[in-house]
Here is the input.
Amino acid sequence: MEYLDFELPIKELQEQYEKACAIGEESDVDVTKTCKQIEKKLIETKKDIYKNLTPWQRVQLSRHPNRPYTMDYINAICGDSFLELHGDRNFKDDKAMVGGLGKIGDQSYMFIGQQKGFNTKTRQYRNFGMANPEGYRKALRLMKSAEKFGVPVVTLIDTPGAFPGIEAEERGQGEAIARNILEMTRLKVPIIVVIIGEGASGGALGIGVGDKVLMLENTWYSVISPESCSSILWRSWEFKEQAAEALKLTAIDMKKQKLIDVIVKEPVGGAHANPEETFTIVASAIKKEYEALKDLSPENLVTQRMDKYSEMGVFKG
Here is the structure.
């Protein structure tokens, strides 16, 4: 397990606990009382640290190297029922955008999401979770297939943004994202969006329009990353913590502004501390939201979705 700077007190206590337990196993010394004391302090320290996280610390957690990615969620939730689908039928198969059919219980869903890599090789293969236009066109193709067969759509957002390279612009990055936003507003099946990591800029919005938008508590959702915001406003990345605070990008801020619908609680220590529990929590949240949407007619779904997004940013004096 890797630890972030603010998690170092947890690392120290964890090491103390493991050493004390090892001494007890290797000798006749009874260290049960000591182990229990350290364990109690470890639990208290975890609760104290994760209860008082700053916006920047939540950004750091959303990027934690041990945090589960889109395919981890899909494989854990769907098991062997997942069938990955490839290609945009136009240019190529974008490895940063994954999607396919899978089941939660007896209900089929079309899962779509950005996939990051977990080491240097896979990060390059997945383009660091930054999709090209063909990725968004693949996502749209899968959504349209889901609509055709009456299958609800679940999107999992985890991206530092859409790929900003010149070749992406040449192939119509902006148009591809704008097209997805338009088509998702009028898709005739339920759409459930889950932000599982970074939700940055148009890269997130390209698969982020939904009847219900869920956000794990240690994730962020914003038009720009704190580092980029800092570099624009202060001409330096050193002010990223102030930028994170000013951007109001946490789940609590998003809920307060009515830009998301549900904050999904993570296990103590974050999703990376207990992935299995996180997968169970997310699967339950998806099922719960689908139950509330499944009986709505296509017309009502689209009308409610349009109304929801039309009301965003409206302030009455």
Summary: Residues 75 and 82 are 7 Å apart (CA to CA). The two ends are 50 Å apart (CA to CA).
